[in-house]
Design goal:
The chain is an all-beta fold. It has a single domain, classed as Sandwich (Immunoglobulin-like). It contains no helices and nine strands. The strands form two sheets. Strands 1, 3, 4, 7, 8 and 9 form a six-stranded mixed beta sheet that branches. It has a three-stranded antiparallel beta sheet with strand order 2-6-5, with no helix packed on it.
Amino acid sequence: VLRDDFRQNPSDVMVAVGEPAVMECQPPRGHPEPTISWKKDGTSLDDKDERITIRGGKLMITYTRKSDAGKYVCVGTNMVGERESEVAELTVL
């Protein structure tokens, strides 16, 4: 089972360069519980970047750069399929 509605969609975030950025997302309820991943501008986020942490539904960027700015989507996935959240914009000043 994978419902359609996200319990919490990420919201737009505005930060200054060098500040931490956090986006929160709670995926739809599902069975099995969906795993969470994030996409930036349509591309899967690379969490090998040591600045980026994905924990639970939270996306944390410890030290933002201008290049982190863009449109982020939270993806909830289980064996039934995947659902994408509404788009949240990260603005880096």
